[in-house]
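Bumping my old thread because nobody answered last time. Still need a sequence for this structure:
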């Protein structure tokens, strides 16, 4: 297997709460564009990675594929409901040794935290998964970096609906079987009550207001957002 790293951006159009949210405009950019551009800020030793959008074969997601083709972005299509299988098959096809999970409704994804996590898993060969989800963290900043082999070796054990949809649930439920390193951060812990994800249409106004506070810099360091959050007058949007 080639020692490649895949930054996998999970995207779909069929959100029940907010359909097509990844194509909504923030600062004249689509949210998917903001996420991709923030992913491009990821840095680590001997940088070698691919950015790939992971979406479904569902017809409604054709627009995601068309966007990727137009912008020369690698993509993979698979099962709509069995996200674990879609991830497994994507990893197999592209020979990723390590991959990062990124959700496309996270316009404040922490590229510095992700860079740190990638460096850690590259140096710690016995670690299966590095996560920031086993402690306190603001909603919208969850992230995992994992070795593909742990998905290959446990694919046959993924049986229930929740494990198929939420791809790390099985590993978190069986912590004693896997070497999972959790990354804690005092700034995350202090601000764990905040919500930086886009779940509803009103959240777009919140995101726009935060970026405008930083002079429309949508690549702003995530920790600067957290440490200055109390200064941003969000009003009814938060």
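Sorry it took so long. Here it is:
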């Amino acid at each position: 297997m080639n020692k490649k790293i895949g930054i996998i951006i999970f995207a779909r159009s069929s959100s029940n709460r907010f359909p097509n949210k990844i194509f909504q405009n923030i600062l004249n950019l689509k949210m998917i564009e903001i996420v991709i551009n923030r992913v491009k800020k990821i840095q680590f030793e001997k940088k070698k990675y691919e950015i790939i959008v992971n979406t479904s074969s569902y017809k409604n997601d054709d627009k995601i594929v068309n966007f990727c083709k137009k912008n020369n972005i690698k993509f993979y299509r698979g099962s709509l409901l069995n996200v674990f299988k879609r991830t497994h098959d994507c990893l197999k096809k592209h020979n990723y040794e390590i991959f990062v999970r990124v959700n496309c409704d996270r316009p404040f994804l922490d590229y510095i935290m992700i860079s740190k996590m990638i460096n850690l898993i590259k140096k710690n060969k016995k670690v299966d998964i590095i996560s920031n989800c086993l402690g306190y963290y603001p909603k919208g900043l969850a992230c995992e970096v994992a070795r593909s082999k742990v998905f290959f070796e446990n694919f046959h054990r993924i049986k229930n609906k929740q494990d198929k949809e939420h791809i790390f649930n099985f590993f978190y439920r069986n912590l004693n079987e896997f070497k999972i390193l959790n990354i804690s951060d005092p700034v995350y812990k202090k601000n764990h009550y905040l919500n930086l994800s886009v779940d509803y249409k009103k959240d777009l106004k919140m995101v726009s207001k935060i970026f405008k506070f930083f002079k429309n810099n949508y690549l702003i360091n995530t920790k600067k957002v957290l440490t200055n959050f109390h200064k941003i007058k969000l009003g009814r949007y938060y």
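Strands lie at 4-10, 25-26, 29-30, 49-56, 74-78, 96-103, 129-131, 144-147, 180-182. Let me know if any region looks off to you.
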